[in-house]
Amino acid sequence: MLDFFPSMTLTRYLAKLFVVRILAVLVMLVLVLMMLDLLSTSGTILAVEGNGQAELLQYASLRIPQLVARFLPYSVLLATILTLLVLNQNSEVIAMKAAGLSAHQVLAPLLFAALAVSAVSFVFNERVVTRATATLKAWQANDYGTIPEDSGVRANVYLMDGPDILSAASVSGTGNDITMDGVTWYRRSPEGQIVEQIRSPRAEFAAPGWRLTDAERFTVENAGAEPVESVVVAPDLTPGEVDLSSIDPDTVSFFALGETIDTYETAGRNTDELRSKWWHKLSGPLSSLLMPLLGGIAAFGLARSGALFVRALIGMALGFAYFVVDNAALAMGSFGGYPPFLAAWAPFFLFLLIGETVLVRTEE
């Protein structure tokens, strides 16, 4: 297997060149996108009384992991094209092929580095991105007020109790210790019309039901609002149902999401959307492995032929086409149009074949 790689010196040289460019492109993309994000969001954050520079830095620290996770594959694609363009222009690719290396052997160090990037991306998503996303969503649901703890926080939860609806801006805790913030209770008639609305800053499990404190009740019949010190709603809604209804795949790790899916299936719930995103937690990071193949067209062909720029554009087009197809397939899987495994993995294997085909046909 080691014969597939060029010499150790050449492998280290190419891998180092590639990784440095990945980091450079990633830092550039994240910094530019973070600045644009802050320009559009800082006004909303600073509008909250008491918020200042510390909150802006807090927002940046929560947003940067999301940007890194999302644009790392793009960075690998652009780094692939930049690396191979330089090697091609300096005739280094010609020298390697003259030494007897095939196209796959030229790309082998880049593929190995991309595989390592995929592994790091998976661990980073599991340990950092999920927690940052959970905290950021809960903070946004609280209109950038007091930052909630990032442990077990879920945002924008909607629950059904017969015809009635209980919504919460954020939910934290598990079991009987669940607490909800930014709660709204809608009592509906058998025809589905809202007849009463109760808003409260907080709700706790009352065994049975959920106790809303410091609430405000609005009735459609009287068209008026009145304060309510304490009221219990949703008597048939259990903490277990809240746990099942408040799962956000973006805020849950791969293994925890797998356990949740098993629980849903045991309860007879449809899990196609969750299963698609569960598979995508593997195929997403692994997409970095495709980028050297899709961008490899930039390495072959004579630089003096004048087609080098066109080859770079073709490599970029193939890479960006993968992301478009991947997002479309994942959306179809979420709506039940594709089976979960197919939605997550079909774009990967499709573009793996396309990349191999293009590489073989352009090697000559």
TrEMBL record:
Its main location: membrane. Coiled coil: none annotated. GO terms for cellular component: ATP-binding cassette (ABC) transporter complex. It holds the Pfam family LptF_LptG. Keywords: Cell membrane, Membrane, Transmembrane, Transmembrane helix. GO terms for biological process: lipopolysaccharide transport; transmembrane transport. It is found in: Cell membrane. It comes from the Bacteria. It is a multi-pass membrane protein. The chain crosses the membrane at residues 13-36, 67-86, 106-124, 282-302, 308-325, 337-355. InterPro entries: LptG, LptG/LptF_permease. NCBIfam families: LptG_lptG. This is LPS export ABC transporter permease LptG. It comes from Qipengyuania atrilutea.
